[in-house]
Amino acid sequence: MKRVRAKGPRTRKKALHRINDYIKADPIRLVGDGEPKIVPLAQAQSMASEQELDLVEISPNAKPPVCKILDYNKFLYEQKKKQKEMKAKQQKTVVKEIRFGPNTDDHDIEFKRKHAEKFLNEGNKVRAYVFFRGRTIVHKERGELLLLQFAEKLQEIAKLEQMPKMEGKKMIIMLAPKSNR
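-> structure tokens emitted (181 positions)
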């Protein structure tokens, strides 16, 4: 009995760069040790094979395409390493939430202000909101006033990114740390 292989797309990953025999352009610009020079593709491939390295197409859209003789696996490894370093250096923004009720007392507001100060000094954003339950939704102006007073108390270390706005049963403001500290 004869075995039949399933037909369909191959699951091989597409290479990031054209290397060695996959380069079709002729002539190419060879960069590397000395000055860039334009050479025929066959000559560049023979130079790479003499050095037991790969001919890698770095910039395929240039006229003529730019190629370099190097160890391709080492090149990919160094690129991944650089990307990992760049990702580690990126600053991640964290949003901390502080919840109030429309009838929150002054002492509680002061207590939550200290928490917000701590979050802002750490470089995090603060999302403060008043949650309206049941019939308290009638007192939206009370919630707006509370949030604006809260933002005013923090104006030395934070800037108001978003004025109070309703989202469902919540009235929300966003505070971001001031950068000129």
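The two ends are 79 Å apart (CA to CA).
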